[in-house]
Write a structure and sequence with these properties.
Layout: E1 11-17, H1 24-32, E2 40-46, E3 55-59, E4 62-66, H2 68-71, E5 74-78
Antiparallel strand pairs: 1-2, 1-5, 2-3, 3-4
Length: 79
């Protein structure tokens, strides 16, 4: 399952990231925020506008706003 489909509040671990689907600068920013294989994440909130952007993703003690297209590039497994 990809991160954009993870149910609200469910804990998961990122098992793979399709870096080739992202612009280099975006990929670098996501890595700097700790969004890489092995990271434990959960979806804290979904936006209310069309497409439900952005997603609020919890990574450790930090909450990060993430576009759905970025979350779609991350494969997760429930933790």
């Amino acid at each position: 399952m990809t991160l954009d489909l993870l149910p609200l509040g469910q804990n998961a671990r990122i098992i793979a990231v399709a870096w080739d689907q992202l612009v280099d600068e975006e990929a670098q920013r996501l890595r700097a925020l700790g969004l890489d294989a092995g990271a434990k994440v959960s979806v804290a909130h979904r936006g209310v506008f069309a497409g439900s952007d952005p997603l609020a993703i919890t990574v450790g003690r930090m909450t990060v706003a993430l576009r759905r297209v970025h979350a779609r590039a991350m494969t997760v497994e429930p933790a």
